[in-house]
Every structure is written in C-alpha cells, then in structure tokens.
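Follow-up to my earlier ticket, as requested here are the two runs.
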Amino acid sequence: MFDFPATTKRVEFNTDKDINNEIKRETLENIAYYIGKDDSEILSRIEELDKEWDIERLLEANAASIVSLSTIFGFTINKKWFALSGMVGGFLLYHALYGWCPPVPIFRRLGIRTSSEINYEKESLKNLLDIDNIY
C-alpha cells in the first residue's frame, strides 16, 4: 500500500548525500580522536553523547514551540495564527511517515545527527574501552 522508509534511515534518506558524508566524516574523526585515550576521557565523551540532542528531539521542541506561540497569537492577536499550528502539525505527520519536513535540511546542515548516528559513535567508543580496568 504505502512504501514508508525505515524509521532508522528515513532522515538520512531525505538528506543531501554530501551532508550525510560530512556528518559521517565528523563522527569518524570523533572516534579516531579517542583511539588510545584514557578510559576516563572516553567515558566522559560517552556521557556527552548521552546528552546530545538528536534531530527528532530538536524537531519536536521546535514544533512544540511554534505550535504554542501560534496558539497564543491565535487567541490574543489574530485567529489566522491558528493556521500555522495546522501547518506544523501537517509537517510533523509527514516527517513521522517519510522523514522530511522543512527544518530537516537546515538542522542537518548544522550537523544535527540522528539517534542512530549518535549511537554509532557511542558504541564505537565503548569498543575502545579497556574492559579489564572498568570492572
């Protein structure tokens, strides 16, 4: 019936190839930097990665902010502001299904990663840890 892209790849599928390659390059550079580093430095980076906002979280916060503001403006300034809430809702639905909405290209150009991209770096760093010294 409908051919939706895989959840884990839908944003990358809708991102320019050069931008995806730049994000991958930066991620690999991050991993390479930690090769041979002390476990405490690696663990510190993993903690940073646990706090990094992925593109989904940023889109949700962005959309919620716009919907909240347009609703306030709709009640206080002009009812036409409610249309913005409807547009944002439509874009969010499209993003949920296909992985694209207007802010995605902007956020990706800024280097905002998907959770899969963040987890790739995190798992790679975990593989660098000296397991004998952790336990």
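Run two:
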Amino acid sequence: MCSATATTPFIRLCKPFHSRVPTSLTFNSTRPTFFVRATVIKWRCPNQTLPPNSDTSFQKKALYLESIGIDSFSLIENHPMLITASLNDIKSTVEYITGMDFTAIEFRRMVGMCPEILTTKVSDIIPVFMFLHEEVRVSGSNIKHVINRRPRLIICNVDKQLRPTMYFLQSIGIKDISKHTDLLSCSVEESIKNSLEPKYNYFVVEMGRDLKEVGN
C-alpha cells in the first residue's frame, strides 16, 4: 500500500508493475481478419470518421485490449473515440492507472463503467490524482477506494468541473469533501444545484438540522 510523504510527489508514490499489463504483443490472433476490419467498425459506428490504415491500427488496439481482458467491440458502441485513439496513449493510460496499484480486475471494472478512461491521456489524469490528494485531502491509502467507487472522476477536468464543484459543496456547508468525493464528478449547474441544494435547504431550513450531521 502506498503512503504519502511531504517530500515525495504523489504521482511517484506507487511503483508501476508492468508485468501485469503487456506493453508489446505478438499479433498472431486466431480470429479471422474480418473480425477487426474497418468495414465492420464502420457498420457498428456509422458516424465515426475512420482514419487511413484504420483496419491495421484498430486491429492492434483490439488485440492489445483483449490481451488485458477488455472486449474492445463492446466498448466501441458506447465510446466510438476508441477507433481513432492512439494505441501508445491507451497503453500509457493503462500502465499509469494500474501502476497506482489497481488490479487488472479493478481496471476492467472501471473501464466497463467509464470507457472514456481509455482515451484520457495521462497528462489529464495526473492533475485529478493530485487534486484529490492535495486539495480534497484523500489519503494515498484511500485513493483506490475513491476511484473504484466513482471511476468517472478520472476523466473530469480539475479546473472546469472538480474544483468548482468542491467550492460549491463547501459553500453549502460540507467541509470534509473527502467523505463526499462521489459528488465531485456531478455538474454544479445540471445536477447539484437542481437536486442536491434543495435537499440541503430542506434539511437545514425546514427541519432545522445541522449540516455537520451530513459529514458524520
């Protein structure tokens, strides 16, 4: 288990374990080549623009994802951007997240719940972990629990979504945000203000209760 120190950057706390996730493959699949043909991809995702040589590049991505237990075709229908995503970027993302000590089973579950994770670059993921650790005060030992509970946090923009939502939650009296991290991925405009705020107003104004009770 990883623990935070004052002198060690949080992104270096966990040692990647590349042995769990292959970084190179021998492409000798026994499946017929038409299984990953661009025509099949186009049929499944008619609105997706296919790049040149998409047949070969997607075959490599499909084989890589299958090698770590992910059914690429089942994800494409929900997240067509996988078709054009860079294989190197996908590998980097997989290696970074599993390097944070998430197991292969946990990672597959996360991707199943939020396939956008696979097309989110490491440079966009690192600020999320830093934000959770430094601003929300999630301990290094609790990061896995927070992400496993709400994988969508990984794909959220810190400046545009996570931090504004944290400020809003603090403004309505929730001081210990680390106990309510699942709310951080909600939209302040579309979700929290329309559903959460009225409930808190009722709790405080109508019932005369103390918001401190919520954080307990």
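The only thing I checked on run two: The chain has nine helices and no strands. Let me know what else you need.
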